[in-house]
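Weekly structure sync, notes
Attendees: PL (lead), two postdocs, one rotation student
Agenda item 3: pending single-chain targets
PL asked that the sequence for the first pending target be pasted directly into the notes so everyone works from the same version. It is reproduced below exactly as submitted, 195 residues in total.
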Amino acid sequence: MSCPHVAGVAALIRKKYPTWTPAMVRSAITTTATARDSEGRAIADGGLGGRATPMAVGAGLVQPRLALDPGLVYDAGEQDYVDFLCTLNYTAAQVRLFVPGFRGCTRTLPGGVAGLNYPSFVVAFGGNGNGTGDAVVRVLERTVTKKNEKKSYKVAFRSRGMPKGPRGKTVMRFGNIVWENDVHKVTSPVVFIWG
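Predicted structure, written out during the meeting:
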């Protein structure tokens, strides 16, 4: 039932904000979702038991009221996605499947594929050794004071080594980047992968 619920919430957001792009609607839904169920407990992973990770539930349970007033949204337009595909070395013929009339890549995303303005992150580290397994995240505090103000920020993810896990296997850890004030809490899920 998640697809009809999310589609309904997206329709409500589009009604309230008719000029928002699809990326902004997705951002509002994603960044206001919660990893807790309707009774305040951590969402359980029905297939594996224990607490569900973003790999099982994405951003979590949709919260329509919060999605209608997210406080902050990530936006990306068609050119951003074209630049993303070009960064992934898609050919002009491949991009034309999504963008009729596309003639060829003229630019890529600054910073590589991680440069797409997306409300969630996957960070892949190389996987050798048995370090402490910490992922260090540094974000400078940003203040948005005006309605519809656009800001940018950079996040640096660094690993102090691979976390302990089965030798030769991929290891994953999870976290969030949170922007909040007295009214809003915008949460971007982060998946860290070693291996």
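Discussion points:
- The CA atoms of residues 135 and 159 lie 5 Å apart.
- The longest strand covers residues 171-180.
Action: rotation student to compare against the earlier draft before next sync.
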